[in-house]
């Protein structure tokens, strides 16, 4: 048995893959809406300790092909540390195809093209990046850097062959500012498209709700499901990326699951949204949703 340090989070698409906890917590841990790692103090786990755990995992599941490095932003680890982990994984799992991790824009920019290429050659070729919004004002209010940093990280990743799976949070700007949030987000993605794009719906744990409200400003009012679908619709309508973007809204927080490739499937996705907005397609019940 592998005893993970809980809570353990991973992207929906990594649900069937091997998870190796290379770090505990999130080094950044400052985003105002995020409660994922508030109970953990960030630490890089000792390489020998993680390698010994990988050895035990290899005995239990030797045919594993995909590995996700947890916790929060394991891509922040020193490049040589990551390369040693990748090398050990490749030695223990003969069928290994892909290694992935969460990353912040700061991690990607700090690595630079050379280290990104070295890691990609070692099979760490996919990162999950929460861009949340392309609107500078909102990014500042949620303590998530700037749109320029997001764009620079996305551009560097694409130029270096690192696949990015990016997430955007619907409802993040509330009723008053939703159009500015969505329009700037579409513009960012059109300038610097990730390979994969997903949307989530805002949900706040009680432990972070006060800080979120303090930073977001006094005028914040939650969006209801119809307004969230209108945000989704406007985002898809405005997306015209110069390279194909594989789009999903399959996260458990979403009222409506959508899947397609943009811009090719834009009209079909808009049709599905219009059907849902007109009541012709059921939404996921609230009790089945979660962040
Ligand atoms: S959203 Fe990501 S980067 Fe921000 S605090 Fe949470 S885990 Fe860390």
UniProtKB/TrEMBL annotation:
It comes from the Bacteria. Its cofactor is [4Fe-4S] cluster. Keywords: Iron, Iron-sulfur, Metal-binding, S-adenosyl-L-methionine. It holds the Pfam family Radical_SAM. InterPro entries: Aldolase_TIM, BchE-like, Elp3/MiaA/NifB-like_rSAM, rSAM, rSAM_sf. Residues 10-239 form the Radical SAM core domain. The keyword Magnesium does not apply. This is Radical SAM protein. It comes from Phaeospirillum tilakii. The lineage of its organism: Bacteria, Pseudomonadati, Pseudomonadota, Alphaproteobacteria, Rhodospirillales.
């Amino acid at each position: 048995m592998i005893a993970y340090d809980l809570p353990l989070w991973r992207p929906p698409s990594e649900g069937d893959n091997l998870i190796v906890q290379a770090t505990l917590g999130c080094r950044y841990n400052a985003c105002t809406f995020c409660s994922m790692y508030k109970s953990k103090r960030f630490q890089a786990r000792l390489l020998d300790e993680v390698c010994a755990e990988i050895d035990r995992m290899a005995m239990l599941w030797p045919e594993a092909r995909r590995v996700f490095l947890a916790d929060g932003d394991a891509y922040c680890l020193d490049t040589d540390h990551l390369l040693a982990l990748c090398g050990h994984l490749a030695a223990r799992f003969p069928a290994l195809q892909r290694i992935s991790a969460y990353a912040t824009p700061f991690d990607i920019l700090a690595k630079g093209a050379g280290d990104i290429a070295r890691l990609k050659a070692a099979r760490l070729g996919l990162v999950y990046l929460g861009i949340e919004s392309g609107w500078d004002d909102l990014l500042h209010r949620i303590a998530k850097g700037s749109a320029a940093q997001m764009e620079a990280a996305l551009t560097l990743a694409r130029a270096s062959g690192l696949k990015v799976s990016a997430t955007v949070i619907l409802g993040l700007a509330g009723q008053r500012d939703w159009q500015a949030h969505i329009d700037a987000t579409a513009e960012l993605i059109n300038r610097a498209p990730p390979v994969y794009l997903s949307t989530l719906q805002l949900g706040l744990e009680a432990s972070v709700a006060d800080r979120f409200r303090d930073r977001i400003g006094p005028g914040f009012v939650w969006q209801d499901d119809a307004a969230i679908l209108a945000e989704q619709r406007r985002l898809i309508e405005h997306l015209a990326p110069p390279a194909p973007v594989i789009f999903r809204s399959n996260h458990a927080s979403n009222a409506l699951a959508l899947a397609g490739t943009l811009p090719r499937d834009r009209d079909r996705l808009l049709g599905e949204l219009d059907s849902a907005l007109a009541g012709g397609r059921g939404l996921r019940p609230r009790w089945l949703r979660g962040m």
